[in-house]
Design goal:
CATH architecture of the largest domain: 3-Layer(aba) Sandwich
Pfam families: HTH_11 (PF08279), PRD (PF00874), PTS_EIIA_2 (PF00359)
Organism: Salibacterium halotolerans
CATH class of the largest domain: Alpha Beta
Strand content: 5-15%
Protein name: Transcriptional antiterminator
InterPro entries: BglG_antiterminators, HTH_11, PRD, PRD_sf, PTrfase/Anion_transptr, PTS_EIIA_type-2_dom, PTS_EIIB-like_sf, PTS_EIIB_2
CATH superfamily of the largest domain: Mannitol-specific EII, Chain A
Keywords: Repeat, Transcription, Transcription regulation, Transferase
Shape: globular
């Protein structure tokens, strides 16, 4: 909103029917031209709500272009405008209007809203229309009572949900400040209620995040305001009985007991149930194990396997990713089940930056949705995308080349090397800086890729090169060649060098999924790529973790851990004459079985990515389904170029 000088400038422009030069305005107000230019920009933004504009001319200055009716309305506004200098954004105005309607028992006029927010009635009416569109999706309306004003209309449950979801976009700190300033509850009572609920939840639910704790406090304060108006939540009896089964219901009742200290009357059981919903849907900092979590863990493992398959990035051993997804999904399931929205303020940025990853996650959430009877919205999908994006960054950080620096002349020289390396090769991480006489101790250091030394190193188990401390051009060339060779080793072989003709079997009968895995593993054992026990390990993985290896319609990729008997990177392909069932509701029956054996978590990724790309292409997948050996090998060869 305009400050005092800007309002004066607005008044001056209204009265002037010709151009005014900026330096004249600056002199009139005794400010710099830069300041007056900023003031003009503010005025220009302000008049857009009146469908008006400023005409600018480099030589003549600025002039207001506004019709008489709009001029009259602005002049009236200027007469009543006070010293209110904070300009609310359209979103903040919507939340403020909803908050005002939320707490007022009687209809509220547009003039009242205009006075509170220091905007014109026209702006208020525009905001009300936008708010009405938002509330419609929550089955809440804004009813206009003739000559009285506006009032919310709808089920109390929907009204509270709509306000909580919209205020999430405002930020809970701002929402709490707004409550202190505007609610018809004494500020002392609000602060005391906050402190008591905080202590209770820190004792009963210490795993809650600060964001979740603040959200529950805000919900409690808003509920108290509505209860003072005799507005209570009505939940179906079967939902209440379901919620009573959770420990969080008892915590909800304790919160209600705290609220009753500030209420005028007894608070009903439905309110405790509604608070229980918020507790269940709140983010926590740790994973709490129970039977439902075990089922969720299995579904998360399948989701990770599918994303690994489609992306060509092996997330299977990332326990941090698995735990992070479980911790996020447990409250998310309750949020989605009971329509308690959680806004993701970064969703547009996440969609733009991780578009493909977000799509893969969207495609593979069907099992979780079916199991829990929910449907993921874009906000929650983007939260899940962030977990996978973080896992990718962790992988990338592990791909840094680790180097030990050694110097025979002194530690100062090697520190110079370290500084120059950091500038010239940011992909190198120096793990240890030591003098030459301590090199023997460093040889036991795990994880180092190379030794860079100022003097020749003999009989080292770690590859080494000798370089000048100044890291001259020829030294830079040496280092670059080492990094290129390392990258070639890490990227792994192409698909045609792994999925060879001797590992392909077409139109083979199998009794069941276990027999299909045995058939796929047989040529790998015969060529000594894996030990016989590896086949049993692949079967055991499916038995223990479910059909997560079924990664797409009709496609499965059984595998086990490298230490279970993998001698060399390998991949076999079996096309079954009759599809078999692995127990996957969505993607059974399976006809294409690829048995994978990898020596580590990275070597197979290049070939896997190429195979995934081929199977995601309709014609290539059709070749695997119906083509002969020659056609399949040609498809594999073409995929190896990707």
């Amino acid at each position: 909103m305009l400050n005092e000088r800007q309002r004066s400038l607005m008044q001056l422009l209204l009265e002037k029917d010709s151009h005014i030069k900026l330096h004249e305005l600056a002199g009139f107000y005794s400010v710099s031209e830069r300041t007056i230019r900023n003031d003009v920009n503010e005025v220009e933004y302000f008049i857009t709500q009146y469908k008006s504009e400023l005409e600018r001319d480099k030589s003549q200055g600025v002039m207001l272009k506004m019709n008489d009716p709009e001029k009259k309305e602005v002049k009236q506004w200027l007469q009543h405008a006070g010293e209110y200098t904070i300009r609310l954004s359209p979103l903040e105005r919507m939340i403020t209007i909803l908050g005002i309607l939320f707490q007022y028992e009687q209809p509220v006029t547009s003039k009242t809203l205009s006075d509170i927010m220091h905007v014109t009635r026209r702006t208020v009416l525009d905001d009300l229309r936008k708010l009405e569109d938002y509330l419609e999706s929550h089955q809440v309306g804004i009813q206009y009572k003739s000559n009285k004003g506006f009032i919310l209309d709808g089920r109390e449950l929907n009204i509270r949900r709509s306000y909580k979801e919209l205020s999430n976009q405002f930020g809970d700190d701002k929402t709490f400040e707004w409550l202190l300033e505007h609610l018809n509850i004494p500020e002392h009572d609000i602060l005391l209620l906050r402190d008591k609920i905080t202590r209770l939840l820190q004792w009963k639910m210490p795993e809650l995040t600060d964001f979740a704790l603040q959200g529950i406090i805000i919900h409690s304060v808003l509920s108290l305001q509505r209860l003072k108006q005799n507005k209570t939540v009505q939940l179906p009896p079967y939902e209440i009985e379901e919620l009573k089964k959770y420990e969080e219901f008892q915590t909800g009742k304790q919160i209600i007991a705290v609220m009753e200290e500030f209420a005028d009357d007894f608070i009903c059981e439905e309110e405790a149930s509604f608070i229980t919903l918020h507790l269940l849907s709140s983010k926590t900092l740790r994973h709490i194990d129970d039977q439902e979590d075990h089922k969720l863990q299995q579904l998360v493992q399948r989701l990770i396997a599918k994303i690994s398959f489609q992306s060509g990035i092996d997330f299977m051993d990332d326990t941090q990713l698995e735990q992070g997804l479980i911790i996020h999904l447990k409250p998310a399931i309750y949020r989605l089940r009971f329509q308690l929205g959680l806004n993701n303020p970064m969703k547009h940025q996440i969609e733009d930056e991780y578009d493909r990853l977000s799509q893969w996650i969207t495609w593979n959430l069907n099992e979780i949705e079916e199991e829990f009877g929910i449907s993921f919205n874009i906000d929650e999908i983007c939260f899940l995308t962030l977990h996978f994006a973080a896992a990718i960054e962790r992988r990338e950080s592990r791909t840094l080349t680790k180097v030990i620096l050694v110097c025979g002349s002194g530690i100062g020289t090697v520190q110079l090397m370290k500084s120059r390396l950091k500038r010239l090769f940011p992909e190198i991480m120096v793990t240890e800086v030591i003098p030459y006489h301590k090199l023997q101790q460093a040889r036991s250091t795990e994880g180092a890729d190379f030794i860079f030394s100022t003097t020749p190193v003999e009989e080292s188990s770690i590859p080494s090169i000798t370089i000048n401390p100044m890291i001259e051009e020829r030294d830079q060339q040496k280092i670059s060649e080492l990094l290129i060779k390392k990258q070639e080793r890490k990227s792994g072989p192409v698909l045609e060098n792994v999925l060879k003709s001797e590992f392909i079997q077409l139109d083979v009968p199998a009794e069941d999924w276990m027999d299909a895995i045995r058939i796929g593993g047989r040529p790998l054992v015969e060529h000594h790529m894996v030990e016989p026990k590896y086949i049993d390990a692949m079967i055991q993985m499916v038995t223990e973790n479910g059909p997560y290896v079924v990664l797409d319609k009709g496609v499965a990729m059984p595998h086990a851990r490298p230490e279970e008997g993998v001698n060399e990177l390998c991949l076999s392909f079996v096309r079954l004459s009759t599809p078999v069932h692995f127990g996957h509701e969505a993607n059974d029956p399976v006809q294409l079985v690829f048995c994978l054996g990898s020596t580590d978590a990275e070597t197979h990724l290049r070939a896997l990515r190429q195979l995934v790309t081929a199977l995601n292409e309709e014609n290539s997948k059709s070749t695997f389904m119906t083509g002969d050996s020659e056609d399949i090998l040609q498809t594999i060869k073409e995929a190896s170029l990707l």
